């Protein structure tokens, strides 16, 4: 009888060198909403690495993993989006990780589903999760992977309602293309190949 084995994860060794953070909101009611695109990306990275994000620590669900010989902590903050910085700064302080080694996967309403924009650093761009990380860490010098979730259908649509809405089936197909690439993006960024990641994925 043929047995199917799940991917065996490398045993994490050495100090944690990078945080890979997916932004989102905890709870069933927020699953597969636009604001949870970051969660979805980090879950896909964990799946690729053969680990489960299920350890409760640093106000997050976490997983220890190895990427390219470097130990990383995958994080899904459980603080709700607007307080994401609490989780990020707590873990960064504990492991003495500089903000330039905190990689954040996030949703972006200025990009259509299926589009990605990787940035080395920058302002919050009106994103409350990023705003809180910058406020509590005192730095905007951290890389982020912006995942397109689509703009509001019309200008007077309430933004909070839009980002907490779910993707349409055709949008999910486009988003899936990005999620498939998330593990490779993480590997490039952890390996210090930011320019290559930007050239390969920005606008694609």
Give structural notes:
With 204 residues, the protein is of the alpha/beta class. It has one domain (16-201): Rossmann fold, CATH 3.40.50. 34% of the residues lie in helices and 21% in strands. It contains 6 helices and 7 strands. The chain has a 7-stranded mixed beta sheet with strand order 2-3-4-1-5-7-6, with helices on both faces. It is globular, with a radius of gyration of 16 Å. The model is unreliable at 1-5 (pLDDT under 50).
Quick synopsis:
This protein is of the alpha/beta class and 204 residues long. It has helices at 37-49, 84-95, 128-137, 159-163, 169-190, 194-201, and strands at residues 16-22, 55-57, 60-67, 70-77, 102-108, 116-119, 144-148. The protein has one domain (16-201): Rossmann fold (3-Layer(aba) Sandwich).
Uncertain segments are 1-5
CATH superfamily grouping: Peptidyl-tRNA hydrolase
Put simply, the count of helices is 6
Q: What's the architecture in CATH terms?
A: 3-Layer(aba) Sandwich
**Helicity, as a percent range:** 25-40%
Order the strands across the largest sheet as they lie in space. Answer: 2-3-4-1-5-7-6
> Residue-averaged pLDDT, rounded?
90
**Over all CA atoms, what is the radius of gyration?**
16 Å
CATH class: Alpha Beta
Number of domains: 1
Number of strands: 7
What is the CATH T-level topology?
Rossmann fold
Distance between the termini: 43 Å
Strand content: 15-25%
Computed structural class: alpha/beta
Q: How would the global form be characterised?
A: globular
- Largest sheet, strands/sense/barrel: 7 strands, mixed
The H/E string reads EHEEEHEEHEHHH
């Amino acid at each position: 009888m043929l047995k199917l084995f799940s991917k065996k994860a490398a045993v994490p060794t050495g100090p944690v060198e990078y945080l890979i953070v997916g932004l989102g909101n905890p709870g069933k009611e927020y699953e597969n909403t636009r604001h949870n695109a970051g969660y979805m990306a980090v879950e896909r990275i964990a799946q690729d690495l053969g680990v489960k994000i299920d350890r409760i620590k640093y106000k997050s669900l976490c997983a220890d993993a190895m990427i390219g010989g470097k130990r990383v902590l995958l994080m899904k903050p459980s603080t709700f989006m607007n307080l994401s910085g609490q989780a990020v700064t707590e873990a960064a302080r504990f492991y003495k990780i500089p903000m330039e080694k905190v990689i954040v996967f996030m949703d972006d309403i200025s990009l259509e589903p299926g589009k990605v924009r990787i940035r080395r650093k920058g302002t919050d761009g009106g994103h409350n999760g990023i705003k809180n990380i910058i406020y509590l860490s005192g730095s905007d010098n951290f890389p982020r992977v912006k995942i397109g979730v689509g703009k509001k259908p019309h200008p007077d649509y309430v933004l909070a309602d839009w980002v907490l809405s779910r993707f349409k089936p055709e949008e999910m197909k486009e988003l899936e293309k990005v999620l498939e690439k998330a593990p490779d993006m993480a590997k490039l960024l952890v390996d210090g190949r930011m320019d290559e990641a930007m050239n390969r994925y920005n606008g694609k």
